Amino acid sequence: MSHLLVTGGAGFIGSNFVHTVLGTSDDTVTVLDALTYAGDRRTLQGVPEERLTFVHGSIADAELVDRLVAGSDLVVHFAAESHNDNSLRDPSPFIDTNVVGTFNLLEAVRRHDIRFHHISTDEVYGDLELDDPERFTETTPYNPSSPYSATKAGSDMLVRAWVRSFGIRATLSNCSNNYGPRQHIEKFIPRQITNVLDGRRPKLYGQGLNVRDWIHVDDHNTAVLRIIEAGQLGETYLIGADGEKNNKSVIELILELMGQPKDAYDHVADRAGHDLRYAINWDRLHDELGWQPQYRSFEEGLARTIEWYRENEAWWRPVKDAIEAQYAEQGQ
Ligand code: NAD
Ligand code: TDX
Predict the structure, then answer these.
(1) Is 328 within the bounds of a domain?
(2) pLDDT truncated to tens, each residue of the chain (332 aa)?
(3) Quick one: 77 exposed, middle or buried, by C-beta within 10 A (0-12, 13-18, 19+)?
(4) Which three-class secondary structure state does DSSP give residue 156?
(5) Alpha-carbon distance 69 to 217, whole Å?
(6) In a domain, 187, yes or no
(7) Is residue 307 among the annotated active site residues?
(8) C-alpha 122 – ligand 2 centre gap (Å)
(9) Is 148 noted as a catalytic residue in this protein?
(10) CATH number reported for the structural domain that contains residue 27 in this entry
(11) What domain range includes position 114?
């Protein structure tokens, strides 16, 4: 039995991780979450509360971080400012949380010699051409495009430097685009699902030919657990599930699954610097650690995700108008 410190555990991927850990082990968990606009205490409803401690605070608070890290066996670091569009409007919280927050955690795990797992993204590698036969691997050079991905790249580099220079016991993972329950409705898939539920038309940036490599959030999290269990210290593992799809086809599938005409969406202003394509080669994770995704059908995973948003309107409804008003200001 271990005690985990999970940063960002009230957000999308972190909360699903806590549900999985508390549901499948005897471990205890402390969640440290600043409850920004993206965090919601209700994402943790239904977990065994007697094994959960919730701390409302920021990873930018070095003293708090030090105290919580000292009492843990393992730190799993999800907390981040995570939305590219927000990073184009105001990059500053991305520096504070993604760079300075990660630095605080690294210093604390170094002082107390605590095992650390760093959650990152495939966006640190930049983008690929649509017809490029290559996919990202663990040795692809870093080439981030947005303020968000640049701060994630910076945080990865800090972790790697703390491994090399100070010998901290850390692993890293870079995952492709996640979908599933409890994702903030600013993000592509839940935005479109809640648009349809709300009688609005889905919004496609530009021509929608940009490709994302979709993975169900539960598959991301089983991969993280496998890396924590068996990954080589100091190493990076890419997480993906062969889920490449262009945005237009995803919107069409959402409309079809929700009983709407396939063309009932609007083209809106494109994102500045919009990455064209992400694609993950996850051979290392499979060959070295024997991991495989469980969600083989995107359509089925998406249908279940649509059901979740249908059944949990109370969760997203209060912020829907404000999110759409913010997008409308940008012509999106
Ligand atoms: P999210 O925005 O849904 O959740 C982030 C959580 O972090 C929120 O609960 C928020 O309140 C918390 N947080 C923000 N600033 C904080 C601070 N200073 N201190 C403490 N908590 C803070 O993000 P997500 O989509 O769940 O992403 C989680 C992690 O996974 C991030 O590191 C992200 O870069 C990475 N990632 C995400 C995806 C994806 O598709 N969503 C893919 C690959 C990697
Ligand atoms: O309304 C929309 N219409 C649209 O066409 C929105 C919100 C997005 N898009 C496009 C932009 C992207 O090509 O859909 C694609 C996905 O957009 P996001 O959900 O914003 O994700 P992305 O920018 O790809 O980044 C995500 O995956 C990698 C996460 O937000 C990051 O945290 C993660 O690192």
Answers:
(1) no
(2) 899 999 999 999 999 999 999 999 999 999 999 999 999 999 999 999 999 999 999 999 999 999 999 999 999 999 999 999 999 999 999 999 999 999 999 999 999 999 999 999 999 999 999 999 999 999 999 999 999 999 999 999 999 999 999 999 999 999 999 999 999 999 999 999 999 999 999 999 999 999 999 999 999 999 999 999 999 999 999 999 999 999 999 999 999 999 999 999 999 999 999 999 999 999 999 999 999 999 999 999 999 999 999 999 999 999 999 999 999 999 99
(3) buried
(4) helix
(5) 25
(6) no
(7) no
(8) 12
(9) yes
(10) 3.40.50.720
(11) 3-178+215-239
